[in-house]
Structure formats: structure tokens, C-alpha cells
Amino acid sequence: MTLKIYTRTGDEGDTGLFGGGRVLKDDPRVEAYGAVDELNAALGMARSVEMMPRVDEVLAPVQRDLFAIGALLATPDHEKMREQLAKARIDDARIAELERAIDGGEAELEPLKAFILPGGTPKAAALHVARTVCRRAERRVITLQRTVPLPQLAIIYLNRLSDLLFVLARVANKRAGAGEVTW
User: How many H helices and E strands in the chain?
Assistant: First the structure.
């Protein structure tokens, strides 16, 4: 049996949650996991532009992490939340991996002395777009956290990821020989 992509169950403006229940499509929970989904798509786009092995290798597991974070946000069941965090390996060690990737990227770069304008090569520009989408996802998760208990690691992860994306955008420009435009 083939499943159809359309179910018609959301035609009235609501959607089903992972683990049961239905909410309006503009519910803070849907806004949060939707922003994480958008971030994952932006990372997919950034990875497809000007392949850059060491940069793309860092981002591949991040996409898997984001899928699990989205599932975590999409469930009101706290046990399923814990399962999703464990499945994604989102823990202090994973945060430390992101920090090591940031440090490794920064080691290739000159220290910042001014704000830089997003842009440069298509790869860097795509990473800057992903960074801004990441910041929005972080804001949406924080909004959701005001009313729903969520693991703090989800917010910490998104915060580190936005820093990583900023550094990777700068690395992409440097490796391509593109200068940065300061503000």
C-alpha cells in the first residue's frame, strides 16, 4: 500500500503532533519545530553549494541532530523527548564537539576587528542564511520553553550551532580567497 502525501487532516488549520494530539498550525510548538525544519533545509542548501569537504563533514551530522531536535519539539510526551535526545546524541559531549569545530574554524581565521556583512561566495552566503534561520529557530524554541518544559540542551545546541555557522561562513570565504566586507 502506498501512502499519499496529502491526508486532508490539516485542512482546518490544525496538525497532528508526534506522539499524539493535535494543535493549531501556528501553535508555538509548531512554530519551533517548523523553524528547526527550515534550518535543516537551509543547511541542506548550504551543503549543496560549492562542496567543501571539511565544512560539509561538520554539517552532515548536524542535520541528523536537527531532525531529532524537531522530533523532540513535536512531541508533548517527555519520555519521547528523552528518547529523541538520546537518539541524536545531543548531550554535553555533542555541544563540546560543536565548540571544537568552532575553535578549529577560528584557528584558520584572522580575529574579528569589525562587524562583517553577510555574503561573499555562494557557500558563505548560504551559511550566513542558515545562521540567521538558526537564530530564529532558537528564538522560537525559547518562546515554546516559556510554556512547555524542554531540555535546555536544545537551546544550547542551537546557540552553539549559530556560532559555528558564522565561523564556517568566514572559513568558506577565506578558503575561496574571498575577502570579507566590514560594516
Answer: 6, 2
> Angle formed by the axes of helices 122-145 and 28-48, to 10°?
160
3-state secondary structure of 23: strand
Q: What single string gives the DSSP state of each residue in 119-161?
A: -SSHHHHHHHHHHHHHHHHHHHHHHHHTTS---HHHHHHHHHH
pTM of the shown model? 0.88
Residue 106 burial (CB count, 10 A): 15
- How many CB atoms sit inside 10 A of residue 136's CB? 16
Provide the CATH topology of domain 23-175.
Hypothetical Protein Ta1238; Chain: A; (1.20.1200)
Residue 135, CA atoms < 13 Å, CB-side half-sphere: 8
pLDDT tens, position by position, for the chain (183 residues)? Answer: 677 777 665 566 666 666 667 665 668 898 999 999 999 999 999 999 988 888 889 999 999 999 889 988 888 777 766 676 666 678 899 999 999 999 999 999 999 888 988 999 999 999 999 999 999 999 999 999 999 888 899 999 999 999 999 999 999 999 999 888 888
DSSP 8-state secondary structure symbol assigned to residue 90: -
Q: Where are the domains of the chain?
A: 23-175
